[in-house]
UniProtKB/TrEMBL annotation:
It comes from Galemys pyrenaicus. Residues 36-115 form the Nuclear RNA export factor Tap RNA-binding domain. Belongs to the NXF family. The keyword Nucleus applies. One of its GO terms (biological process) is poly(A)+ mRNA export from nucleus. This is Nuclear RNA export factor 2. Its main location: cytoplasm. One of its GO terms (molecular function) is RNA binding. It comes from the Eukaryota. Gene3D superfamilies: 3.30.70.330. It is found in: Cytoplasm; Nucleus.
Amino acid sequence: MRLQNEDRIHVTVWRDRKSVEREMGKRRQDRTQENWFRITIPGGIKYDKTWLMNSLRTHCRVPFTPVDFHYVKNRARFFIQDASAASALKEVSYKICDEENRKICIFVNQSSEPY
């Protein structure tokens, strides 16, 4: 039996308590950042902001507050900070039709806090 145990190596790892506390603080900050979601509507530049927001609010089962609405190239984009609203907006994708009867696609991605 003694020969079998000689081939094994036992390693003990000691962690610096301050680095563990720093890591925990970083995780808390990351959780705060994870609460933001970027909502992107491809081709959204075709739509008036008021019409688009009213359509989204009408179809979305959870109220939301858009932050930093803007157009990037041909997309409409804004941010929200509520995970349940983000999920509800994702469900609305392809359920809103524009005046030409085209369905509107909505992309929802986790994001860092908007500027």
